[in-house]
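Here is one record:
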Amino acid sequence: MRSLILKNLQGKKILLLFVVTMSVYLVMIFITIPWLVTYSKGLSTLDMLPTGYDHKYALSLFQALGEEGRDYYLSRQLPLDFFYPGLFAVTYALLFAYLLRKLDKQDSKWFVIAYLPILSGVADYLENIGIINMLLTFPDISATVIELTNYCSIVKSFSTSIYFVALLVLLGIFGYSKLTRRATQNPRVPGTEPKLRV
């Protein structure tokens, strides 16, 4: 896995993946998920509950969605959400590894963070499979399916949160490194500062 990531650290490729990933994400955030919240009369969808949910909430959500809302979940939101986890996993794993390479730290322990988007993506796919099962079996939803799907949702949220905290730290280090490198390459020689005209 590590060697596969390191072989694909081209800036243009990562930028293209980022644009596609964000495009799918924005469609879900601004179009499909708001539509689902409208159908559910304000209840959040299961994949938007980072701290998890229980059997009662899942039943309440699918009941509130109604037949039309549940069909929209299956036919609109979930197809998009089957593209997104894979895109997220690949894009953000490559982005973190790319920044590490720019800092010449690709062999450091920090590289393990690049695997978190992959873990998040796998958990997201399992979460989606669980949600599909719930939608297809409603109202006779298995408590075990809800419990396992809830676990996947929490793993997804937890791994994603850790990743983005680490990414922000790495971006800060990368920015500081760029600034100090620029200052080192262009040192100011005393007496060469431009004089102000009065």
